[in-house]
């Protein structure tokens, strides 16, 4: 029996786990038994297999043939001023071959984007301390005794990684009682955007408890004394008040980790703010203070979303000189034509009202696999083929095992892959041709990367952060937005509720209007005491949350900062 050869398929979804599946003798898609995937596929993958794929191109709300749609696209691209066009790529499919169209649009002269809607701030923070945004090896995670889950819904957003370590001891740091809290030894339900203060607070106690790794600090680090000075800047009572974590709880942290090896699983939650990079670096500095990065140990560390392309070249990006616009700040109306690929900005980008108003004033080309909210504003829709019908390689951000995709299903004739579309357009415009598809595929499939590069750690030495609690008025709420088990951002099963603690005095099932200085929208209330008081919680993919969020970029990484906002509820 052929087991894994050219029948492999990679899960293309934006997720820490990057699963490897395969197509069996009966063309059924199954989970491989390879390492992380380990014979199980998650709910989202099953939804993806059942996805209602686009089977027809659409022009001005009428179905047209793929050929017709492509000729309209070519004609339109010939008419408009290339400098007034935008290439906007989302993270609907994280395969490397998805970058092919960017090669055409950069040769054509479109504006491109920079920054992220996702992990950018935290990524910069990690890089500033360690030199690169890469994670320790998964073996070090598996060898750890205690896992601190910090601003990350670990069992939901990376269920396969979680499966590897589910029997460990857990500590959870989150404003929400996430499912893992049930089995955690300690839950610190902190006030949003106070993680840097908690990191400093714990650093002081670590010193008092003598759990700082003195040898590591001397040999591998710079600036730990300054960092400790920062930690001493505030009295403990002030940290208690600001973070909402009492001293007893903070001490309990040290009782649990005493003489144990510790892994911190850090997530997006801590960095969805203006100073997201600084906050993250502060937490990574606390981890370094404990010696979690010590290369002489075989356990412990801090894991974030690593830079999945670390150590690889982007082969499709040849000689790019195009101007780049910050992704979250894109104003679609500034362009004559916008080409949107694998993204759903109407739901996923911040400030929905501004996004929609912009899309209404430009020629929108949507290139994707399904009819999403952004398609309503598209003039031309081009169906991309299913991940089962195109070759690709998925580089992971939660671990280092890439997943491979072959063409295991015949492509629907009305759809086109990203590589094919790019080649077609390059040919029409007589630009510099792409290499063969296999040239790219084989590179990403075979290239070897050395992830073991830890040399030294640089502590954060100064800190300027404006906490939200300082501006927050009595009748205002923190906005919390996080992933749901049944959706992958705006794909699959969507939940449009606002979740509130019963102590806020709202009635479940009632409609409320929620407003911020950026916009307003209506929501139906669900009462959930897992949510910290004074927080309004929304799942990612909620069609209305981003009416409330700011589109301005964060301080350092050209990224969105969805939670840098306070809201009122009526
Ligand atoms: N099922 C599922 N899995 C997914 C996704 C999905 O949509 N659905 N999306 C994928 C993507 S694109 C990404 S980027 C990853 C992200 O996965 P995670 O890193 O888990 O990110 P989030 O779910 O956004 O937020 C994590 C947690 O941060 C908490 N949080 C919010 N504010 C704060 C704060 O100020 N401090 C602290 N300490 N915690 C806070 C939230 O309550 C939430 O529990 O997940 C991937 N996996
Ligand atoms: N309120 C709020 N907003 C958020 C977040 C949040 O937690 N809360 N999370 C943020 C995060 S972490 C992220 S990563 C972003 C994600 O934001 P986006 O990158 O916009 O991702 P999605 O909204 O999931 O939309 C992806 C689209 O890609 C399409 N697609 C899937 N596969 C393919 C393919 O093979 N080819 C093509 N061409 N298209 C495909 C799907 O049909 C889908 O409509 O959202 C951000 N926005
Ligand atoms: Mo993301």
Account of the protein in words:
Helix 8 packs parallel to helix 13. It is globular, with a radius of gyration of 24 Å. The chain contains 18 helices and 28 strands. By secondary structure, it is α/β, with parallel strands linked by helices. The model has no long low-confidence stretch (mean pLDDT 97). Molybdenum atom binds next to loops.
**What is the mean pLDDT?**
97
Bound molecules: ligand MGD, molybdenum atom
Uncertain runs are none
Shape: globular
List the helices and strands and how they pair.
Blueprint: E1 8-10, E2 20-23, E3 29-31, H1 43-49, E4 57-59, E5 62-64, H2 66-79, E6 85-89, H3 100-108, E7 112-114, H4 120-130, H5 138-142, E8 146-150, H6 154-157, H7 159-165, E9 169-173, E10 186-188, H8 195-208, H9 214-220, E11 221-222, H10 224-232, H11 236-243, H12 247-257, E12 262-266, H13 276-289, E13 301-303, E14 324-326, E15 337-341, H14 345-348, H15 352-359, E16 363-368, E17 380-383, E18 392-394, E19 403-405, H16 418-428, H17 437-446, E20 457-458, H18 468-471, E21 476-482, E22 487-488, E23 491-492, E24 498-500, E25 511-516, E26 519-527, E27 535-539, E28 566-569
Parallel strand pairs: 6-15, 7-14, 8-9, 8-12, 9-10, 11-20, 12-13, 15-16, 16-17, 21-27, 24-26
Antiparallel strand pairs: 1-2, 2-3, 4-5, 4-17, 18-19, 21-28, 22-23, 25-26, 25-28
Helix pairs in contact: 3-16, 4-13, 8-10, 8-11, 8-13
The structure holds ligand MGD (2 copies) and molybdenum atom.
């Amino acid at each position: 029996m052929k087991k894994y050869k050219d029948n492999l398929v990679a899960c293309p979804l934006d997720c820490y786990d990057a699963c490897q599946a395969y197509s069996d003798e009966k063309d059924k898609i199954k989970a491989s038994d390879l390492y992380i995937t380990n014979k199980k596929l998650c709910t989202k993958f099953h939804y993806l297999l059942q996805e209602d794929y686009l089977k027809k191109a659409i022009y001005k709300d009428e179905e047209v043939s793929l050929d017709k749609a492509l000729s309209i696209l070519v004609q339109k691209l010939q008419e408009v001023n290339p400098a007034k066009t935008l290439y906007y790529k989302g993270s609907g499919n994280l395969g490397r071959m998805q970058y092919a169209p960017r090669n055409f649009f950069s040769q054509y002269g479109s504006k491109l984007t920079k920054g992220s809607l996702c992990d950018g701030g935290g990524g910069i923070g990690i890089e500033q301390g360690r030199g690169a945004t890469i994670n320790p090896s998964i073996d070090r995670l598996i060898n750890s005794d205690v896992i601190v889950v910090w601003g990350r819904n670990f069992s939901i957003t990376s269920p396969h990684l979680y499966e590897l370590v589910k029997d460990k001891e857990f500590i959870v740091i989150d404003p929400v009682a996430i499912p893992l809290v049930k089995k955690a030894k300690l839950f610190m339900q902190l006030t949003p955007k106070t993680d840097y203060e908690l990191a400093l607070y714990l650093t002081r106690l670590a010193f008092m408890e003598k759990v700082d790794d003195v040898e590591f600090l001397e040999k591998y680090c710079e600036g730990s004394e300054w960092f400790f000075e920062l930690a001493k800047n505030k009295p403990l009572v002030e940290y208690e008040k600001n973070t909402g974590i009492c001293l007893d709880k903070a001490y309990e942290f040290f009782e649990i980790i005493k003489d144990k090896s510790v892994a911190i699983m850090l997530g997006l939650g801590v960095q969805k703010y203006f100073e997201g990079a600084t906050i993250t670096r502060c937490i990574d500095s606390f981890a370094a203070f404990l010696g979690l990065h010590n290369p002489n140990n075989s356990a412990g560390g801090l894991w974030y979303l690593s830079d999945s392309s670390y150590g690889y070249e982007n082969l499709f990006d040849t000689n790019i000189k195009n101007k780049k616009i910050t992704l979250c700040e894109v104003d679609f109306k500034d362009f004559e034509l916008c080409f949107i690929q694998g993204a759903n900005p109407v739901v996923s980008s911040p400030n929905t009202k501004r996004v929609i108003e912009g899309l209404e004033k430009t020629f929108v080309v949507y290139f994707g696999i399904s009819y999403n909210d952004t398609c309503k504003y598209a003039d031309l829709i081009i169906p991309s083929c299913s991940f089962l019908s195109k070759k690709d390689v998925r580089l992971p951000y939660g671990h280092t095992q890439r997943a491979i995709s072959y063409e295991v299903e015949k492509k629907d004739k009305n759809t086109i892959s990203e590589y094919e579309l790019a080649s077609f357009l390059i040919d029409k415009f007589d630009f510099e041709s792409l290499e063969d598809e296999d040239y790219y595929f084989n590179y990403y499939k075979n290239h070897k990367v050395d992830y073991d590069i830890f040399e030294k750690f640089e502590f954060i030495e100064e800190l300027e952060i404006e906490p939200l609690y300082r501006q927050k008025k009595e009748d205002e709420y923190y906005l919390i937005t996080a992933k749901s088990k049944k959706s992958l951002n705006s794909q699959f099963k969507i939940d449009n509720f606002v979740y509130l603690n019963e102590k806020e005095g709202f009635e479940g099932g009632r409609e409320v209007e929620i407003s911020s200085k950026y916009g307003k929208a209506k929501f139906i209330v669900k009462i959930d005491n897992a949510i910290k008081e004074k927080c309004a919680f929304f799942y990612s993919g909620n069609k209305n949350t981003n009416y409330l969020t700011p589109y301005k970029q964060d301080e350092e990484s050209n990224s969105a900062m969805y939670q840098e906002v306070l809201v009122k509820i009526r």
